[in-house]
Amino acid sequence: MPSTAQRRAATAVFDETGCFFERSHELLATATPDGDFRRVNSGWTDQLGYEESELTGHSLVEFVHPGDVERTRGEIAKLAAGAESVGFENHLRARDGTYHWLRWAADIARGVVYVVARDVTTQRVRALSVADEQAYHLGLAEASARGFITLDSELLIRDVNEKMCQMVGRSRAGMVGAHFGELIVERERGLVEMRRAIAEGLVSGCELTFQGPDGRPIPASCNFGVFRDAAGEVAGVLAGIRDTTAQRALQGSLLAAASYTRSLIESSVDPMMTTDADGVITDVNRQMELLTACGREALIGSPFRDHITEPTLADQGIERAFRDGRVTNLELTARALDGGETVVSYNAATFADSAGTVQGVVATARDISDFKRLEHELRDMTLELAERVKELEVSNAELHAFSYSVSHDLRAPLRAIDGFSRIVIEDDGGTLTDSQRRYLDLVRDNTQVMGTLIDELLAFSRLASQPLNRTPVHTAELVAALQSEVEADEPGRIIEFTNGVLPTVQADPGLLRQVFANLLANAVKYSRQRETARITVASETRDGELVFLVGDNGVGFDMRYSDKLFQVFQRLHRAEDYEGTGVGLAIVQRIVARHGGRVWAQGQPDQGATFYFTLEGRAP
Amino acid sequence: VNAPTIEILLVEDNPNDLELTLHAFRTHKLGNGITVARDGQEALDHLLGSDGAAPGARPKLILLDLKLPKVDGLEVLRRLREDPTLGHLPVVILTSSREERDIVESYDLGVNSYIVKPVDFDKFVETVRTLGLYWLLLNEPPIIEAPEAAVQAARP
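The joint structure predicted for all components is written out below.
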């Protein structure tokens, strides 16, 4: 047991110690062997912000960073296990929640742990950053996608990173000590750039080609930076090298794609352009240059409206394209620099970047001036045609009036001539001589011929205006009926009819009857010198076309005159030999033509004649 | 008989045709009782009366040319057919026109017969004879409630 004096002395000593305790800049504390604070000095309040009461009785561990708890417990346990002192560092939480690096020194004496701690946060951070920076830079260099090379002032390689090794396919050991020039293909240029770097301190974006694995050239973009020693002398060069093979390839394919797109645009027969939202032209193709007679440079940057005859319409078109996303078939007239105007039809649509933001309008023009011209021509032609039709109607009406007049008025004088001649002959009291009578008879005969002529001519002219009424016609029946009539009209003659295949055709029955009647009459008439007249009626198919034929064994004709056969009033025989007006075959020709067919004849003098006709144009 | 007898009203403007027609009628002793009108208006005046003047004697037959001055034959025919007392009067068109249009229109208007004058005078004479015989002797006209008709009906 200590004496009172001892205790007093001890108290005095204690007080002195207490003063040191309180005044220390260190963090001082006593603690239980378990690590509970027993007493703390004011340093804890000054440096970490804790009130004494907040610490005493609490375990040190409560204030330690969770990451350091385990270690801290370990150190405390060492003391408890008999170690005289421990020293360690850990993170301690300050009152404001920040962590401080504390360096601890603790020893144990008589069951009391004496703790001295110092806040080493500042030194600690500084010490760490130096080490970290080195590691960081090294890591950065290694992790970098760039190759790195450090060179000494002689351009000998001092170090390379892993990426550089991969890039050139050489080991670190194989490169260190080698000359930089060995790595590159264009050695001279590389060295020039390098010397420039040394002279200027920095070169960036220098394109060099490195010798890759298997001699493959590696295009690369290089940055060179000089580093200096403490004396400011050039100690070496740091080279950052980026392999641009992939980029080149990408650029190449982008270029190829762009050039492909461009060639598509340029090869378009339609003028194309892009504009921004204000209608200012941002790109054009060659056709657009031709359309406007403006160069590409003049076009780009100029407002689209300047090249259009009605600028307001152009503005509206661009506006509409931006509003609706597209415009179709907008008709505008482009005005070229040289004044030429072209009607074009515009199709436009907005285009966006990869993010979907509308960038502008791409517009394609189609030159429709030809179309417009044709449209106008068509309209003019239609109008002209309508006029012609009207004229034709008028002339048709006139023709009709004319033929009506002929029909009515031409016969009357004939009848008068015939009638009065007849009356003279009738009333003759014996004063007329025989020849006078004969002349009067001739006058009368001629009036009859004239009458027939008028009738046939009228029939012929009526054919032009008469509507065609196509119905199925059984030509076999039609021809047979006509042949019976012919036989009845020519009782004294021997006529041998031979009929071939006569099909049913689409034709105007009355008019087709007229054709066969006229041809049969012709055949009968010109074969009358034959003892037996042989008349053939048949049809045949020539080149897919149905051809009718009427042939006879009569006097025939000279082919030299065949073109006159079908003309009105044209005859190949003298009137006294063969009666007729020369209208019959002309009527045949006209009827056949009205059916869309052709008529022709073949013959030889004294060898008979054959007439052919078709009723429609060639079968499709 | 006191009443003016008229057998035929011949409406013809062409002097030659007129003379030949009359000659033909005379040849067949049908020349009596023919009244001539030289244009359509004259024919209408005769049949319907004009300017207060009373109509002339009603014929048994009208021979009507188509192409006539003033009022043409078709118009004369239309006016006759519209008239309540003359609607049934036999009308024969005697014309040079063989036009289908004229023929159809004439029948549409109710003509009794349509004859094309032959150019051949012999045939013409024969035609006129046939016409006269048929319409004046064979044909039985309808009884018409008119004074002239009564007179005509009284004739043997």
